[in-house]
C-alpha cells in the first residue's frame, strides 16, 4: 500500500504540489476568523447536580449565580453620597433592562450590609446573566458601558471577568509563544538538516496542518461550541509533529537517495518510514480519543482539534512531502550550510550505536538505574490535590485579579462563590408545614462552619419562628410588596433557596468537605440539592476521577491494537505502555513537587495555590502518551526492518537505535522548544501543563528510548516479536505484514 503510494506521489508529484498550493488561500481565508467563533469556558457537566441546581435557579426562581460583580469605589466621600447614589441606581436600572440579565442585587436596592464595606467607600452589585459562557461574555461586553456611574469608579469582578481575562491572556500567550518558538525552531531545523531547502519543509507542513485544522474548527463552530483552548493544542501538535515526521522522512530519503535514485528513494521512504509515520499518527490521534470519555466541552474541543491536526500532519507528510522531495530530487540539500554534515554516518560510527551495545551488555543494571529514579520522581504525585484555580490563576496586575482581590479583602464572606442549597418540597414551598421543615433546615445550615446563611428566615434577625412563618405563608395578594420581592428571590412554587457563604474559597478542602456534608443531609419531606462554585468543582473532580480509568482503558486498548497491527507482537505494546507510564508518572510528580508545593514561584512567575489543576494529568496523559508512542513506533519500525533482514536481536536493536536515536533526540528537542514556549504562559494551568509535557518528552526521548528500550529488548530477546499463533495468522491475513515483503 505505502509502496504504491510512493509510486503515485512520484508520478504525479507536480500535480500534488499544485493542488496543495491552491488549497493554501482558501484554508487561510476560512481559518483566519476562527478566534471570533471560539468560546471560553466549557467546563460544566450537564449531568451533574450542580448544573441541575443552576438550571433550577435560572429557569424557576429567576436568579443565577453571581456571574458578574460591578465593584464601585468612591474616590472621595462615600458610595452613599447623593450624587453617587443616584448614578449607581440609574446604572443598575439600565442594566436590568438588558435581555441577557436575569437579576441584580445591590446595597442600593436591598441595604444588605454584606454588599458594602465598613467605611462605605466601596460597594458591589451582583449580576446574574442568562445563557452559556459565550452568551454571558457577550452580555458583559454589552452592559459594561451601562454600568459606568460617575463619580464612582467601576471595576469588574466575579467568575466571568476572570474567564474573560484567562481567554485574553491565553490568546496573548499563544502569540508570544509562537514568536518565541518559530525562530528558535527554524534555526535548530537549519542546523539539524544542514540545508535551507530541507529545513523549510517541516515549517511548511506545520503551517499547512495548523491552517487546515483552524479552518475545520471554524466550520465546526457553526454546529457545536468549540473551546478556545483547542487552538493551543493545535499549534503545539501541528508544528511538533510536522517537524517529527519531516525529520524521519527526509533523513530516510537522504539515506536511500545515493543507492536507489530519486524515484526509488521516494518509494522506499514511503514504504518504510511513511508506514511508520502513518501508524505513529494513528497512535497520537487514538490517545486523544480518550478525552471523549469526559462530558466537558473544552476537552472534546481539544480532542477534535488535536485529532484533526495530527491526521492532517500525517496526510501532508505522506503525500505533499514525498511529492516535494521528488520535485527537489538531489536539490533537497540546496542552500547547504558548509559546516554541517548532511550525509548519514555509517551505523557503527554513530553515538547511539555505541550506547546500544553498552546498555545491552548490562541490561538489568540499566533497567534498575533508569526505572528507579523515574519512580522516585513520580512519588509526589501520590499527594496530588485535584482542584480548580480561582482568580489567582491570573497575573497580579490583571484588572480582574485586582477587583476580585479587593472583594476578598474588604467584604465579608466569599461573595463570589456562595453555595446554593435548593430544596424541592411536596406542594407549595410556602405552605406552613413546608416552612416548618425549611426553618429546621435553615437552623441545621447555620450550625455548620459557615459565615452566613442568607434566605427568607434570615432577612430580619432575632425574630420568632412562628412570626416569620406566619408572615411568609400569607397569600401573595396579602403579602407586603417588600417581603414579596424577597420571596421571589428565594422561592418559586415548590422550590426554596438558601445561599450559604463561607470564610474560605470555593476550591479549598474545607469547602468541598462542607458540600459533601450538605449533600448528605436528610430532612423528611424535603429533596435537597446543592450547587454553586464549590459543588461545581466537586462535581468536576468526581466526574474526571470516576471516568479517568475508562479513559486510560480506552487509550491503552486502542494503543495495543494499533501497535499490534504495526509490529505483529503482543509483548511490545505492553512493554511500550509500561515505559510510557514511567516517564509520564515522573512528569506528574514533578508538576506536583513544583507547582502544587509552590517551589520556584518567583522564578517561574506564579502564585502558589497549594492545589493542582484537575484536568492537567488527563491532558498530559492524552497528549504525551501519544507523542511518546510516536517515538516508539518510529524507533521500533527501524528495529523491525533489521530484525526481519538478519534475525539478530542485538544487532537489530543497535542498528535501529543508531539510525533513529539522533533523529528522536533532535525531534524531541524541537518539540521541547515548542512546548516550553507555551510554558512561558502567564496562566499557571498552561505553565504547568507546558513544562510538565516538556519534561515528559525530554525524559522519554533520552533515557527511556535511548537506555530503557534497548535494555528491555535485550532482556526479552525473541519474545519482543511474539504473538499467539491465531493472532499472527490474523495479522498476515489482514495484510499488515507488507513491511516484510
Give the topology:
Elements: H1 2-11, H2 13-31, H3 49-61, E1 68-73, H4 82-96, E2 101-105, H5 107-110, E3 122-129, H6 133-147, E4 153-157, H7 159-193, H8 196-220, H9 229-289, H10 297-328, H11 351-361, H12 363-378, E5 386-387, H13 399-410, E6 419-425, H14 432-446, E7 452-454, H15 465-472, H16 481-490, E8 491-492, E9 495-501, H17 509-519, E10 526-532, H18 533-567, H19 571-596, H20 601-604, E11 612-613, H21 616-646, H22 649-678, H23 684-716, H24 725-733
Parallel strand pairs: 5-11
Antiparallel strand pairs: 1-3, 1-4, 2-3, 6-9, 6-10, 7-9, 8-9
What do these coordinates show?
This protein is α+β, with helices and mostly antiparallel strands. It folds into four domains: 1-36 and 170-344, Multidrug efflux transporter AcrB transmembrane fold; 67-157, Alpha-Beta Plaits, CATH 3.30.70.1150; 345-376 and 568-731, Multidrug efflux transporter AcrB transmembrane fold; 400-538, no CATH class. Helix content is 65%, strand content 7%. The protein has 24 helices and eleven strands. The protein has helices spanning 2-11, 13-31, 49-61, 82-96, 107-110, 133-147, 159-193, 196-220, 229-289, 297-328, 351-361, 363-378, 399-410, 432-446, 465-472, 481-490, 509-519, 533-567, 571-596, 601-604, 616-646, 649-678, 684-716, 725-733; strands at residues 68-73, 101-105, 122-129, 153-157, 386-387, 419-425, 452-454, 491-492, 495-501, 526-532, 612-613. Strands 6, 7, 8, 9 and 10 form a five-stranded antiparallel beta sheet that branches. Strands 2-3-1-4 form a four-stranded antiparallel beta sheet. Strands 5-11 form a two-stranded parallel sheet. The protein is elongated and about 95 Å long. The mean pLDDT is 86.
Amino acid at each position: 500500500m505505502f509502496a504504491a503510494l510512493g509510486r503515485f506521489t512520484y508520478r504525479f508529484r507536480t500535480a500534488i504540489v499544485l493542488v496543495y498550493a491552491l488549497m493554501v488561500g482558501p484554508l487561510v481565508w476560512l481559518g483566519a476568523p476562527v478566534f471570533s467563533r471560539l468560546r471560553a469556558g466549557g467546563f460544566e457537566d450537564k449531568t451533574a447536580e450542580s448544573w441541575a441546581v443552576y438550571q433550577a435557579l435560572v429557569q424557576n426562581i429567576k436568579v443565577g449565580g453571581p456571574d458578574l460583580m460591578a465593584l464601585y469605589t468612591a474616590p472621595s466621600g462615600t458610595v452613599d453620597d447623593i450624587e453617587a447614589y443616584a448614578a449607581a441606581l440609574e446604572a443598575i436600572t439600565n442594566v436590568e433592562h438588558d435581555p441577557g440579565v436575569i437579576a441584580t442585587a445591590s446595597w442600593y436596592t436591598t441595604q444588605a450590609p454584606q454588599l458594602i464595606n465598613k467605611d462605605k467607600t466601596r460597594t458591589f452589585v451582583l449580576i446574574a446573566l442568562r445563557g452559556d459562557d459565550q452568551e454571558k461574555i457577550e452580555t458583559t461586553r454589552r452592559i459594561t458601558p451601562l454600568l459606568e456611574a460617575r463619580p464612582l469608579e467601576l471595576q469588574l469582578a466575579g467568575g466571568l471577568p476572570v474567564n474573560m481575562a484567562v481567554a485574553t491572556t491565553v490568546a496573548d500567550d499563544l502569540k508570544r509563544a509562537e514568536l518565541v518558538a518559530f525562530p528558535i525552531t527554524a534555526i535548530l531545523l537549519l542546523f539539524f538538516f544542514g540545508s535551507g531547502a530541507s529545513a523549510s519543509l517541516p515549517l511548511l507542513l506545520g503551517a499547512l496542518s495548523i491552517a487546515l485544522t483552524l479552518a475545520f474548527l471554524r466550520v465546526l463552530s457553526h454546529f457545536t461550541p468549540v473551546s478556545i483552548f483547542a487552538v493551543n493544542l493545535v499549534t503545539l501538535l501541528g508544528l511538533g509533529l510536522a517537524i517529527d515526521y519531516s525529520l524521519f522522512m527526509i533523513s530516510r530519503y537522504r539515506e536511500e537517495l545515493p543507492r536507489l535514485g530519486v524515484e526509488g528513494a521516494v518509494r522506499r521512504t514511503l514504504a518504510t518510514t511513511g508506514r511508520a509515520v502513518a501508524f505513529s499518527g494513528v497512535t497520537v490521534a487514538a490517545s486523544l480519543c480518550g478525552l471523549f470519555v469526559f462530558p466537558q466541552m473544552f476537552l472534546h474541543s481539544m480532542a477534535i482539534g488535536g485529532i484533526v491536526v495530527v491526521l492532517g500532519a500525517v496526510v501532508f507528510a505522506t503525500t505533499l512531502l514525498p511529492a516535494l522531495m521528488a520535485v527537489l530530487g538531489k536539490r533537497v540539500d540546496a542552500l547547504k550550510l558548509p559546516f554541517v554534515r548532511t550525509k548519514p554516518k555509517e551505523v557503527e560510527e554513530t553515538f547511539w550505536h555505541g550506547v546500544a551495545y553498552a546498555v545491552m551488555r548490562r541490561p538489568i543494571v540499566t533497567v534498575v538505574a533508569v526505572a528507579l529514579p523515574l519512580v522516585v520522581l513520580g512519588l509526589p504525585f501520590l499527594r496530588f490535590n485535584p482542584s480548580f484555580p480561582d482568580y489567582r490563576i491570573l497575573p497580579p496586575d490583571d484588572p480582574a485579579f485586582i477587583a476580585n482581590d479587593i472583594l476578598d479583602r474588604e467584604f465579608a464572606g466569599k461573595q463570589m462563590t456562595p453555595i446554593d442549597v435548593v430544596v424541592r418540597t411536596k406542594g407549595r414551598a410556602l405552605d406552613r408545614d413546608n416552612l416548618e421543615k425549611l426553618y429546621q433546615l435553615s437552623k441545621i445550615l447555620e450550625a455548620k462552619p459557615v459565615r452566613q446563611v442568607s434566605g427568607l428566615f434570615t432577612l430580619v434577625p432575632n425574630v420568632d419562628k412562628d412570626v416569620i412563618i406566619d408572615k411568609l405563608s400569607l397569600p401573595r395578594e396579602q403579602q407586603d410588596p417588600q417581603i414579596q420581592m424577597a420571596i421571589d428571590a428565594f422561592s418559586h412554587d415548590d422550590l426554596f433557596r438558601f445561599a450559604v457563604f463561607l470564610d474560605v474559597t470555593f476550591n479549598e478542602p474545607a469547602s468541598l468537605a462542607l458540600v459533601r456534608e450538605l449533600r448528605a443531609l436528610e430532612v423528611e419531606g424535603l429533596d435537597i440539592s446543592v450547587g454553586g462554585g464549590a459543588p461545581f468543582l466537586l462535581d468536576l473532580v468526581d466526574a474526571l476521577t470516576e471516568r479517568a480509568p475508562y479513559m486510560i482503558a480506552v487509550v491503552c486498548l486502542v494503543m495495543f491494537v494499533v501497535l499490534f497491527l504495526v509490529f505483529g507482537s503482543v509483548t511490545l505494546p505492553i512493554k511500550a505502555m509500561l515505559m510510557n507510564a514511567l516517564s509520564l508518572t515522573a512528569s506528574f510528580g514533578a508538576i506536583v513537587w513544583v507547582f502544587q508545593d509552590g517551589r520556584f514561584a518567583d522564578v517561574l512567575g506564579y502564585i502558589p495555590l497549594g492545589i493542582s489543576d484537575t484536568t492537567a494529568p488527563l491532558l498530559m496523559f492524552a497528549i504525551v502518551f501519544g507523542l511518546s508512542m510516536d517515538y516508539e513506533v518510529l524507533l521500533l519500525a527501524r528495529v523491525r526492518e533489521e530484525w526481519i533482514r538478519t534475525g539478530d536481536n542485538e544487532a537489530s536493536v543497535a542498528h535501529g537505535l543508531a539510525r533513529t536515536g539522533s533523529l528522536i533526540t533532535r525531534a524531541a528537542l524541537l518539540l521541547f522548544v515548542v512546548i516550553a514556549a507555551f510554558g512561558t504562559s502567564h496562566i499557571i494551568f498552561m505553565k504547568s501543563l507546558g513544562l510538565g509535557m516538556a519534561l515528559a518528552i525530554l525524559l522519554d526521548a533520552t533515557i527511556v528510548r535511548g537506555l530503557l528500550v534497548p535494555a528491555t529488548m535485550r532482556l526479552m530477546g525473541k519474545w519482543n516479536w511474539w504473538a499467539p499463533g491465531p493472532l499472527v495468522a490474523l495479522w498476515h491475513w489482514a495484510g499488515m505484514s507488507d513491511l516484510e515483503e
